[in-house]
Amino acid sequence: MAMSGIAATLLTLGTTFHRRMGAPIPCLSDSSSNISLNSKQAKIIKEAVIIMIDEVSMMNYIKLMDMLDRFLKGPMQCDQPMGGKLIVIMHDFWQILPVVPHKAGGPTLYQPQF
User: Fold this and answer.
1) What digits encode the pLDDT tens for the residues 7-58?
2) Which of 1, 51, 66, 113 has the fewest other C-beta atoms within 10 Å?
3) Are 82 and 68 in contact, with CB atoms under 8 Å apart?
């Protein structure tokens, strides 16, 4: 799954994080998933061996990962972090430009030499 719909379309059976995990928008510190523990969606998550999340740089990391941790403990009936699931988070950080305070647009700040 991915954080954006465009990235999700590039994955086999891809979907967004919010859809697969039932994450609300906006996700607050006390938010919970809207997926029923007895639903087909929960069964798919429970049967997953690895949960891969792409485009994590676009994620409100702390709130969404906390929500995911709380949610996974339910269907997995496991109090380990993330319900004992292996979570792989990834992103191509070369896609993100650095933010330079008080700097107007201009020439490229860093160009890798390949």
Assistant:
1) 888 888 789 989 999 999 888 888 999 999 889 998 999 999 999 998 888 7
2) 113
3) yes
pLDDT at 114: 58
CA distance 24 to 45: 17
Query: For the whole model, what pTM was predicted?
Result: 0.73
Structure tokens at 31: 């938010």
* Structure tokens belonging to residue 78: 């496991």
Tokens of 38: 């007895």
16 beta partners: 2
DSSP string, the chain: -BSSHHHHHTSTT--BHHHHHT--SSPPTT------TTSHHHHHHHH-SEEEEE-GGGS-HHHHHHHHHHHHHHHHT--SGGGG-EEEEE--GGGSPPP-TT--S-S-S-----
Binning pLDDT at 50, 70 and 90, where does residue 88 land? very high
